[in-house]
Design a protein that fits this description.
12 strands, alpha/beta, two-stranded antiparallel ribbon, 13 helices, about 45% helix
């Protein structure tokens, strides 16, 4: 990736699940991907309106790092909420392809433990009855053991589980008691991104030429939701100079998407990624202030799609058809023709509308629709082969995403234990992911 810019860029890091502390994720990320010759500066962060976070900057790279910290906006779920979510995930829903093998093994293990416990319990009862009743020793041991498990072990398991996956329980479950937290998280994220879009220096010039969002784990779902909602505020923000307005890159992008849809050919990912960058430049040349150019997901549960984001596959497909959930490449526009709903191949991902040009006159511009923001935002997805929290995103979110499956380095557990590598993507021993992060953020600098 070649990056040439005179202005600075902003990188927004969105942390994942767990009992996260402010700046813990971002500071570790920046410290491990920076060159040894770079000095790391920490400055007050006024954009986040949150005194616990800082802006981190590198001396040699024209890059500022911000953390979008959202853990404080989520309350830990109750024991009943946690049990219900786990039971739904393990037993009541059809798991995604990525999760299926692991979920089946967990189901078998749980059933085996229950059967084993039942076997020993029934065997002990039969022996006790045969010997003339329960012995004081067996009865006392069972009573004391049950008390200790209920009084000490289960509460600690609940606390640890709530701290580990509680954020996912609350954020991914759109029940009435969770709506407020979901709204506050998205609202705070949209507010931060808007401030970065509008941030200016003392001379009144915009500081940032582009913004990159990096979402780890559940933070990738949060980032996806923020991008989805933020584009709605910029969709009509065009101030073109000359009329008529020419948009050749948008026409070329539309042709590529339509050809793929009609011919069902192999998706031209490299050509598509190049057009995304050009289309990003084109909408900016027409006066749109949008700055998010890249979305990087790391160990993203979005790979599970309907398994975590909808009631079932049918519900997920219905929401993507209604364009509530943007895909990459985007869904094609539809229109009414002879009483039937058909694909609108002419407009594809846009529609014509009037905006004011720099002279204040009305001019016609092709507006990229509310669910086609990934036509100009490149999406890169990184996951470890043994991290079943993350995985390939093509199945649910489209072939326009470039996926990188990487084998983790380090200890035996990191390399082999399922999901153990989930929190180690930017550890210093992960040389492949560190090199990839540097390439995506800094290019050839």
């Amino acid at each position: 990736m070649k990056i040439k810019r005179k202005q600075r860029q902003a990188v927004v890091i969105i942390h994942g699940i767990g009992n996260q502390m402010p700046m813990e994720t971002t500071r570790e990320f920046v410290e491990n991907i920076k060159d040894n010759s770079d000095i790391l500066y920490s400055s007050p962060d006024r954009e986040a309106n949150f005194f616990e976070t800082r802006r981190l900057s590198l001396s040699r790279k024209k890059t500022d790092f911000y953390e979008f910290y959202w853990a404080n906006l989520v309350n830990e779920p109750s024991s009943s909420d946690l049990r219900e979510w786990i039971s739904v995930i393990l037993f009541k829903k059809e798991p995604s392809v990525r999760a299926k093998k692991l979920v089946v093994k967990i189901r078998i293990a749980i059933v085996a433990l229950v059967l084993l416990f039942s076997f020993f319990l029934v065997t002990d009862i039969l022996k006790s009855c045969k010997n003339g009743g329960f012995s004081a020793w067996n009865t006392g041991t069972f009573t004391i053991g049950t008390f200790l498990v209920i009084r000490f072990l289960l509460p600690r398991i609940n606390i640890k589980a709530a701290q580990t996956v509680g954020d996912a329980v609350k954020y991914l479950t759109p029940s009435p008691q969770n709506i407020d937290s979901r709204f506050k998280i998205r609202q705070k994220g949209v507010s931060l991104l808007k401030k970065l879009h509008e941030k200016r220096d003392r001379s009144g010039n915009l500081i940032y030429s582009r913004i990159i969002i990096v979402g780890h784990s559940l933070g990738s779902v949060v980032g996806y939701d923020i991008i989805t909602n933020l584009w709605h505020d910029y969709i009509y923000s065009y101030v073109p100079g000359k009329a008529p307005v020419l948009q050749p890159i948008l026409d070329e992008m539309s042709t590529l998407i339509v050809d793929h849809h009609k011919n069902k050919n192999e998706f031209p990912l490299e050509a598509y990624n190049q057009l995304q960058q050009k289309l990003y430049d084109e909408i900016k040349s027409l006066g749109n202030p949008w700055l998010i150019s890249d979305f990087i997901t790391v160990g993203s549960p979005l790979c599970h799609g309907a398994y975590i984001m909808a009631k079932d596959k049918g519900d997920f497909e219905r929401r993507t058809n209604y364009r509530e959930l943007p895909l990459n490449p985007p869904k094609i526009e539809v229109k009414l023709k002879d009483g039937n709903i058909v694909k609108d191949y002419k407009n594809a991902i846009s529609y014509e509308d009037k905006v004011n040009n720099k002279k204040g006159d009305d001019v016609v511009v092709k507006i990229i629709n509310h669910s086609s923001q990934f036509s100009f935002i490149r999406w890169r997805n990184i996951f470890f082969n043994n991290d079943y929290v993350g995985g390939d995103l093509k199945e649910y979110f489209g072939e326009g995403i470039k996926n990188d499956m990487i084998i983790p380095k380090g200890s035996f557990m990191k390399r082999n234990l399922p999901c153990y590598s989930h929190t180690y993507y930017w550890d210093k021993d992960q040389v492949e992911t560190i090199a990839l992060f540097r390439e995506l953020l800094f290019g050839n600098e």
